[in-house]
Amino acid sequence: MKGGVYLDAEAPSLVKAHFALVHATPATRAKRKRFPDNVVEPVASAEEALAREDAAQNLHAAEVMGPSRSSEGIHLYYLVRWLSE
After folding, report:
1. Cβ(22)–Cβ(30) below 8 Å
2. Burial state string for 32-42 with b = 16 or more CB within 10 A and e = fewer than 16
3. Predicted confidence (pLDDT) per residue in 11-63, tens digit
4. Which of 38, 41, 61, 77 has a beta carbon 3.0–4.6 Å from 83's, enabling a disulfide?
5. Rounded to two decimals, what is the model's pTM?
């Protein structure tokens, strides 16, 4: 298990690790460990995520796992770690 997601060794292309920008307020950032895909923007690298991070706009660089489909049919990304901490 990584970041709240059980990984299937038989199907590694379903859920992958990504670097991303996550749109989250400070309160949401402190509490949440999973985010819907509409607030996550995957990027090519950790360096790009850190370069585009903008706390004033609530954009935070992170490593996430996903997308994973929830039981409600929503695509989710699971937080592995915030890159700026």
Report:
1. no
2. eebbeeebbee
3. 556 688 999 999 999 999 999 999 999 999 999 999 999 999 999 999 999 99
4. 61
5. 0.84
Residues in the chain: 85
Of 59, 61, 80, 81, nearest in space to 15 by CA: 80
Sign, Cα dihedral of 1, 8, 31, 18 = positive
Residues 66, 7: Cα–Cα separation, whole Å? 10
CA angle, 61 then 9 then 22, to 5°: 15
**Residue 73 has what DSSP assignment?**
S
